[in-house]
High-affinity branched-chain amino acid transport ATP-binding protein LivG (Streptomyces glaucescens), 290 residues
Amino acid sequence: MTTTTTAPTSTAVLDASGVTMRFGGLTAVRGVDLTVNTGEIVGLIGPNGAGKTTFFNCLTGLYVPTEGKVAYKGSVLPPKPHLVTQAGIARTFQNIRLFANMTVLENVLVGRHTRTKEGLWSALLRLPGFKRAEQESRERAMELLEFTGLAAKADHLARNLPYGEQRKLEIARALASEPGLLLLDEPTAGMNPQETRAAEELIFAIRDKGIAVLVIEHDIRFIMNLCDRVAVLVQGEKIVEGPAEVVQADERVIAAYLGEPFEGAPGKEEAAEVEAAEAEAHSTMEGDDK
Ligand SMILES: Nc1ncnc2c1ncn2[C@@H]1O[C@H](COP(=O)(O)OP(=O)(O)OP(=O)(O)O)[C@@H](O)[C@H]1O
């Protein structure tokens, strides 16, 4: 595969630098730097529309960033999702994307296709080559189902699982590609408190297996409990990054969540310019009236 080797940073699994993503006139992500180190769980938070998912899509090759680069274990990644997965980054999506009419075990087996000689279509169509590879993969997939607590449901159809277990299955499928970094996009969305606690335990267990985790979440309590480090995006820019307790107490973060402007907020200068122009226009109009 075509990766460019750069000087390896000590323990960085992910090293994203200056990532910018523009859609026409809209800058959804602006110059974001983020590293995730071995053994870390890092959180990415921010109000709706802050650019979190767009940033994830830049990391996983779904989008080609307008500027910036993304390196995994010292190698710059080509912006192609299957090459990114092959390199060692796996992800889950905000909306569950399982093969609903396949069994739980089959879903995990499909997730292994980047680690077997057989391709995705071979896996989906169950060609002879897939059956041989399946034999080897079955054991590993069952281990993952044990790990995620789904082994007893290996033969159930994915669509018949309760919601929390479908989310777990997505994680099991992502783990099947044997990643070094797992990206989770809102893993607890729609979960009840009990399911959320189980998800938290599962993510800690994944970290303990040596897989670094980067997680987007709206549930602030969940993220503060879970993460070693938290980065905050507001209007596409990273405004704060640090340990959970520091970020939680940061007035810029509180203001961003309460929707109040703060010193140096992204877009504040532009807003001030607009206000000044409006004030000037207003005073001119008043002057005209006289
Ligand atoms: N494909 C696209 N084309 C044009 N604009 C887009 C596209 N994807 C995202 N955007 C815009 O980019 C901005 C950031 O969106 P994004 O979904 O990344 O935010 P988010 O932080 O993940 O939000 P949420 O928490 O609501 O999921 C938004 O203004 C959104 O409308």
About this structure: The longest strand covers residues 12-23. Residues 23, 26, 28, 46, 48-54 surround adenosine-5'-triphosphate (CB under 6 Å). Residues 1-9 have pLDDT under 50 and may be disordered.
